[in-house]
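re the bet — no i am not wrong, look at it urself. input seq straight from the record:
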Amino acid sequence: MARASAAQGALIVFEPSSVGDSRLFHEARALTHILKYSHERLGHLSEGEATDGPLLEIETFGEEGLRYRSRLPSSASQGWEGLKAYAVDQVKDAAGAGDWCTAGIIRYDLAILSTKGMSVTAARYLVAELSKQGVTILCLRDFDKTGFSIVHTLRTNTRRWQYLTLPRVFDLGLRLVDVESMGLQSEQVQYDSKVDPRCNLLECGATPEECNFLVKWQTYGGWIGDRVELNAMDSMQFIAWLETKLRAVGVCKVVPDPLTLDTAYRRMIRLSRVQQAIETAIASMPTDDEIAVPADLMGRIYNAIDGTAQSWDTALWQLVRAHA
């Protein structure tokens, strides 16, 4: 998939969770433009030289943030550059955090919300908060009964969740018209229900033609029909199909309103000044040989923490601050 996409001029983003087959892994890495991995799982990858790696390499450290190194002509780095994690007032669910990070650096101005199936309450809470800010939600799902239920649950009130502001949700599909136009392969599915599933499908927005595709006949123990998964498309089909859907709903690059842009500009000016001050301070740092360590340092630390709840590193920091 990566080789075929690269041959078509696509941007290759590789997010491995493990090495697996070493030969295939290194082959995929050689084709990659953006490599992103977890320090906890694949920290050894950062030991290589940037000169023989991807254009942009990102190593994540969970709540501590991430670091990156770039060979992009417009933003080449001399080595690893750090970026601390953004602090939030309240964490609802960390699922999909890595996807959100990746979404910030790829082609479309989108953030990715993954619920691994039916949306949980935390996902609907996030959708509700985003909707208050006028954010549009795009839903990508399989062409089956569960897929229609996912969309319906995201954009309507349910017994478990009531929206104060109904979200603006676009169903990207799959839909029957997509399946037929691409000649996608279906698979049989069985519904263990005495009630005709088409009743719920119609309620969730399926057309009568879609209902008759998804539910074909009744059996002694339930109902039989067909379904089509997104992975029925090959890689190039999927990319072309998704980009067509995104263009159809008007997805484009974002430039914020003047007030937001002005505020962001002032903030970045301040950050730039802070960064310059940090770089100046680092350049003037004394070497190890220039820093005299007190001969009785261990005794001082012991006396500072003995009989207290204070840790040794906190005591050390206070000692350094007092004599800096």
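see?? The chain has a mean pLDDT of 84. told u. also Residues 258-283 form the longest helix (26 residues). so pay up
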